[in-house]
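In the laboratory, one determines a bound structure by crystallizing the protein with its ligand and collecting diffraction data. In a computational setting the workflow is compressed into a single prediction: the sequence and the ligand go in, and a structural description comes out. We illustrate the idea with WTA.
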Amino acid sequence: MAKWVVREGNVFWPSEEMKKVANISNSDVYEEADKNPVSFWEEKARELKWFKEWEKPYEENLPYFKWFIGGKINMSYNCLDVHLKDKGDKPAIIWEPEPPHGEARIITYNELYKEVNKFSNVLKKLGVKKGDRVGIYLPMIPEVQMAMLACARIGAIHTVVFSAFSPDSLRHRLNDSGAKILITSDGYYRRGKEITLKDKADEGIKDTGIEKVIVVRRTGSNVNMADGRDFYLDELMKDAEEYCEPEKMESNDTLFLLYTSGTTGKPKGVIHDTGGYAVQAYLTTKWIFDLKDDDIFWCTADIGWVTGHTYSCYGPLLCGGTMLVYEGSPDYPDPGVWWKLIEKHKVTIFYTSPTAIRMFERTGESWMKKYDLSSLRLLGSVGEPIGEEAWMWYFENVGGGRCPIVDTWWQTETGGILISSLPGIGPIIPTFAGKSFPGVRMAVVDESGNELGDEKPGYLVQKSPFAPGMLRGVYGNPEKYKKTYWEKYKTMYDTSDGAYIKNGLIKIEGRTDDVMKVAGHRLSTAELEDTITLHENVVECAVVPRPDEIKGEAPVAFVILRGKEREGLKEDIIKLVERKISPIAKPAEIYFVDDLPKTRSGKIMRRILRNLISGKELGDITTLVNPESVEKIKEKLKL
Ligand code: WTA
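The predicted complex, in structure-token form:
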């Protein structure tokens, strides 16, 4: 069996075999690209099909910048039309339902092209025009990629909302984006249960501008269909024309909005453009995942997150690849389900989260030993730091000691991976994400923006020229865009992550702001606090993350009550969070306290709570107006 990686102590290098076949194996690429990142990206952009070439490759007027100015391109054209001649009969999507609800579907490029064209015409007929926002609230079924590509084809801006988000979360996103159309489904299957998504959608569109709802039939159950407002997709598709001319988008026109959590209460709509994002998605998939014609690529991320957008949809399709899409969860009907799928479809590239890996580590190797995983040749990790133990476990048990692991660092805002090792070049060192991707300049700096030397921890930033896949703003809120990403360093993009560099490789240490990564999901402590304080018995609340063996982090709430504690109150608060945000955000622990540590100006010192709960040094508490509160909380925590 081919070995794709060789080990030298704690460092992993591509094997000779890997170097021979890899899409990129010449390490000069880093230096070459860094000499002139703009011409590097220009050259790569030419691998996509442009209706018209750009007049100017890059322009900066900070905090704004543009790529491929004047260039005309269409995302759906590059994902579909360009592959028809050579790859029409090749599977684009292999879809697997959650067992036992249905059969696998194999959708070729020809078929996907046909469906997307019809879907585009359906949208047009319902009045959707270029620049209009379309909400997509769908589970992992192929119609979600079709819906995104249909929007892209006609120049409509999609905003996908994770199907496990609550109706309230959906409503906020629909209102903020001003969407008039929502695409959803009757329901879907999750851990053996039927989830009636349409009911949640009906609730979520109340008090929004949604005029029409397109419903994909997945479960076939009876759902409420409002006359003149709700339409089944299959019925609309019946009379739809077979061809839809792709809209010629200016490269900087918006492709999608994706809402993400920041340091304040309400999620913000991150804006991604068309051309720059496409180039980044394409090249990172080709080089980091080394995607080739005969690969079967499986990114397990849900489409509701950026990883799903870039690597469960656009990246693989831009490369003309075949991807697996799975509706269900990793542990249902048993923890063997993912490995069974890898065996069945001979998956070659597998991309998942450290949380999933830790979960499988806990369940034990026996589940994967039942299946043949020898088709795998490359593994990836994303979303949170991966510890050495989980890395080695993944390497040995999933990769059979043969496959390189790419630990990919990026964010909703960056659109595509910015830091990773390249599997044909190396080196790969467990727990280090790697180098900046060619043509990208990441750096670690101190508070005032001075670059730090080796092994000095600081703040992770990006320097000019900014990568083509980067966000172009926050929808409807330029102030927020400036404040969040550009206020601190002005000429550098602030990632809000802590990091250090050792031997040229970047080690990510985690968020430095009030954003948590719970099971890889990005959640804001402020949003949880705002939600919990909505409860009539709650006066004040602080939420901080505590380390969690499986999920990486878990939210813990400290709550000051109005009146006395009563039975069932904790459960009520948890239910409130599930209802208002999502079950994924529910606090792992709630402590009722009399007082929260505060500064003289009344600011809650979350850092102290965070240190308390994770057993770290408390740090300076002399600036507190109520240092005695710390002792009392310690008692509660029985420390
Ligand atoms: C964290 C996910 C360590 C980081 C694509 C970042 C990581 C946040 C890694 C963005 C990694 C992502 N190692 N931490 N390989 N990848 N992160 O927007 O804190 O959901 O800022 O995008 O995830 O989360 P988001």
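The first helix runs from residue 16 to 21. Keep in mind that any predicted model is a hypothesis to be tested, not a measurement.
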